[in-house]
Amino acid sequence: MPLPRFDDYKAYILSLLAIFKGFTIGFGLIAPIGVQNSYILSQGIKQNFHFTAATFCILCDLVLMSIGVFGGSALIHSNSIIAALLTWGGIIFLTIYGGIFLKTAIFNQSQTVQTLAKPTSRVAVILTTLAVTLLNPHVYLDTIVIIGSISGQFAVTTEKLAFLLGTCLASVAWFYTLSASAAKFSPWLNKPTVQRGINILIAFIMWSIAISLVLNH
Hints:
Elements: H1 6-30, H2 35-46, H3 50-78, H4 80-107, H5 122-134, H6 137-151, H7 157-184, H8 186-189, H9 192-216
Helix pairs in contact: 1-7, 2-3, 2-7, 2-9, 3-5, 3-6, 3-7, 4-9
């Protein structure tokens, strides 16, 4: 019986490498602190449907990265109207939400973490999560444009799917870990002084992103 040849395993090896590359690139794009991560952190501290929020962040990533891998990046690049709408919608959204967090930090110093726009129900949390995700232009840059462009180096459909799987696994690992960690350490993170600092930090992050969008538009 002849020994297996390298070519017999080549497709599997290339798929595993694509998964690994997708995971590392996806993790590198998702992990830096930003609007999504700030919101998931906030929900985890409050233990207010935090896993629901994380799940919808993951689902949005899955849809957007799939669009990017299978050709959606060209649409964003070629249509200046779509790009402008995403950018200015994000600027307005981030400016308003940054103000909400800063107001919470200033006027609710002695209270526990307040809900952002009082999203006490699961439906409200889902809608807020979708807004935080889909009204942030950086999400489209990371998922559709960057992920989509990188996936172009894979000529075989199975390798593209493996790369997409890797990026999605990174999203699952990051958002569930962040959500669970925030909930676990919520007794400490929920202290008024710590809570105030977190709210100020989140406001600063949102306004910084909004300013960068204005300057780069």
